[in-house]
Design a protein that fits this description.
Elements: H1 3-17, E1 38-39, E2 41-46, E3 54-58, E4 64-68, H2 77-80, E5 81-85, E6 93-98, E7 103-108, E8 117-122, E9 133-134, E10 138-144, H3 157-173, E11 192-194, H4 195-210, H5 216-232, E12 243-245, E13 251-252, E14 261-262, H6 263-279, H7 285-299, E15 317-318, H8 337-345, H9 353-360, E16 371-372, E17 375-376, H10 409-426, E18 443-446, E19 449-452, H11 464-468, H12 475-488, H13 490-493, E20 494-495, E21 498-499, E22 503-504, E23 509-510, H14 516-530, H15 533-539, H16 542-550
Parallel strand pairs: 1-9, 3-10
Antiparallel strand pairs: 2-4, 4-7, 5-8, 6-7, 8-10, 11-12, 12-13, 14-15, 16-17, 18-19, 20-21, 22-23
Domain SbsA Ig-like: 58-139
Signal peptide: 1-20
Organism: Pedobacter ginsengisoli
Amino acid sequence: MTAKYYLVLLLLILAGSSCKKSDQGNPVDPPVEPPTGSFTFNELKVNDLFSGFSYYSVNLKPTIKLSFSAAIDKSSVVNGIVMKDKGNNSVALNVAFENDDKTIVLSPASSLQAITMYFLDAQTNLKSTSGNKLLSPITINLVTTIDPANKFPEISDQELLTKIQRQTFKYFWDFAHPASGMARERNTSGNTVTSGGSGFGIMAIITGVHRGFITKAEGLSRIQKIVAFLKTADRFHGAYAHWIDGNTGKAIAFSTKDNGGDLVETSFLIQGLLTARQYFNGSDQAESSLRSDINSIYNGVEWDWYRKDNSNTLYWHWSPNYNWDMNMPIRGWNEALITYVLAASSTTHAIPKSVYDNGWANNGNLKNGNSYYGVQLPLGPASGGPLFFSHYSFLGINPTGLSDAYANYETQNKAHALIHYNYAKANPKNFYGYGEDCWGLTASDDINGYLAHEPTNDNGVISPTAALSSFPYTPVESMQALKFFYYKLGDKIFKEYGFTDAFSLHDTWFAESTLAIDQGPIIIMIENYRSKLLWDLFMSCPEVKTGMKDLGFTGPNL
């Protein structure tokens, strides 16, 4: 039997005691008495309100009233009512009585911690003055409010953006793999480096030079190290594995059959390398050699091989052990537009436009056109999917004024971000903390592991990279989120390498992890918002301009 059952039973009892069974003078039903030797819970109020058995945004010294069907033996309260946090730490309680000792009034002896979940249990060893026991235990869940005080001194918006970029940059600079210079998959990855995340890292290094975090000579040296490593690392028809051993360059299986080439991760890497090629444009030997090496890596990717027997779509994986067994066609709308753009732009292994139209666009079936939370979405799944769909390819591809036969990509990406923002404001699942200051769902670490969060798959976990990497699309809304994350939650989520990966105010959970593929877009997209640096560099690639035009793209940057 649950506490909620007994509350409903009580209401039924009260309703029944005030009504007759018929108009023919039948007697009123007698009240239902608890079983002999027990008494029941009657009523709950937290700060004089009842809203079930879970309470959110509770002040740090709440008043909790529990009412019962019998007067309580005061000596039994010490062991009969217990309050603890999620870490099983006990909370000392002040206890008073009302209503002829049938109501216990509880409050914490000292202030509770902010954004913390507590459990108040009334157990069956709670006794009445006649020696009877509580019939059934009850549990009340309490999540305390956010501390409104700023956790860091307030600074100007521009100073704040720089601070976030500088701190996030450390992930790719201080924490880079020492032998290869590559970005580690996450802050606990040891020697496992990531090809796609390293592409993001290269763009972060260029940003670091631009912002004065490091010198240009330092940035060049680090990217030279990365390129030298890539020249000797395992390749599979030119594509790199998702994960690579940072010492040996050998592929590390992402899953059993995903132990070979990953074309999408490779495209993220190439996006970064081409951006570096355009940035280091000096005539000296070091920069000339770097550009030559990057061209060799790009030209070595057999994009057309990944058509899988010359079919009209690109495939994500190929393994020397399992061939095409992963069998994942790359179809839109998702994060992989850059894969088709680079494949079409290749001067050695290009794909024709038909592969883009039939494979990526699925003959137009990537279109949406529906409205969600007041915003029309041109492409993709319901509500747009995780926000990384509008980030990863657009670290380099500038969507401003960019169109093809299927969409205007400035409209697409702004719509995607606004849908997430409006979803958080509407908060249809009533997750604590959601709102105009706290929004953004994407793939990230999760309470239960890892999850691609989106409005249609939401369990209350917010990922800072989602809103922050949307700065070029929703600058006002993203700044609101940034200030909330930094000033109000910064003591919990702003750490050595910037914002940690995810959090849930609803479940008072805060990740300790940082991931390359989530940290990278933060620093890069903030820079694109501020200066368009990475957009300008990548879009200056002559082969990219040609390839995108061949696919039917038009826009001011082509």
